[in-house]
Amino acid sequence: MKINIKNNDNYIDINPIGEDQFKIIYSARKIYKLIEQDQLEEATIMYNQLIKNNNIEDNKYKFLKNMIIEKEKYNNFDEDTKKRYNQILEKGQLALKSSDYELAYDYFCAGKHIFQLPIFDYYIGKTLHKTRRFAEAKKYFKKYIRNGGEKINKCLFFMLVHIIEPNKFVKSYNELFEIDQVMDRDFDLSKKIEPITGCMINEYIYNDSYYESCNLNEKLILIRTLLESHNVKMANKLLKQLKGDTAAEKQLIKQFNKDKKIYVNNYKR
Questions:
Q1: Nearest to 120 by CA among 100, 99, 97, 90
Q2: Residue 261 pLDDT
Q3: Burial of 250 (0-12, 13-18, 19+ CB in 10 A)
Q4: What gap in Å lies between CA 237 and CA 180, rounded to an integer?
């Protein structure tokens, strides 16, 4: 069942998950909001409690911790330094938007050298990606995933586009979708993901040896992705083939069938 929780005049969309996972995503979402509001001390306390009380691997929500660190560094700049930072970042973004990739690259590299903040790794990677220098871009995206936070969903998307192995694609897509939940879909994953789901996911589905090797959760992720990319006919066909070996699996399939319209409609917003 899909649940909507109202918090600070915003709805948090929670997809079919257990109660414990629901609480974790709710807490992570609240931490994200606190960071956005620059309430970093409270966000840090909540983050530490989230990791400790739920025995979560620190890497799972490390992007929240990285966001806190990056904001703290920025807040510690004096006003002149903040002004220089904003100017360099904005000029680089403007050049990138204007497809002046050489100029954008120079601005972002200068920003990285001067300020040593991971946000510039993301933008360097994005600029290289735009010029199809994918191997170089990947190095910067990996740096940002380790140390950054604010652009983590966009960074993971750029990485996702070039994943060839089906099992890695499914895992990375699931990770990206969960982060997108925490960020309340600030990044419109549906519109961005559709061009690659249209070709890549279908290719994985038609690869019988791969699809049959998936467990139930992995199959449901693929079927859900088909629904989100509006390939409803194929999704329904595969869904009818799922039987479930245990009572829990049968209940999961039953619940998924109830929610499938939500997955399609949710991505028409």
A1: 90
A2: 77
A3: middle
A4: 28
Q: Please tell me which residue, 207 or 81, carries the higher pLDDT value.
A: 81
Q: How far apart are CA 31 and CA 47, in angstroms?
A: 7
Give the pLDDT confidence of 108-128 residue by residue, as tens digits.
Answer: 999 999 999 999 999 999 999
- In this structure, the answer to whether residues 263 and 223 fall within a common structural domain is yes
Positions of E strands within the chain: 3-7, 10-14
Q: Which domain holds residue 138?
A: 77-150
This model's pTM is above 0.70: no
Domain termination site, one of 134, 150, 166: 150
User: In the prediction, which pLDDT does 158 show?
Assistant: 78
* Residue 23 CB-density burial (10 A; 0-12 exposed, 13-18 middle, 19+ buried): middle
Answer whether 28's CB lies under 8 Å from 61's CB: yes
Residues 155 and 264 in one domain: yes
The token duo for 257 is 């069938």
List, in sequence order, every residue forming a beta bridge with 5; answer none if it has no partner.
Answer: 12
Beta bridge partners of 6: 11
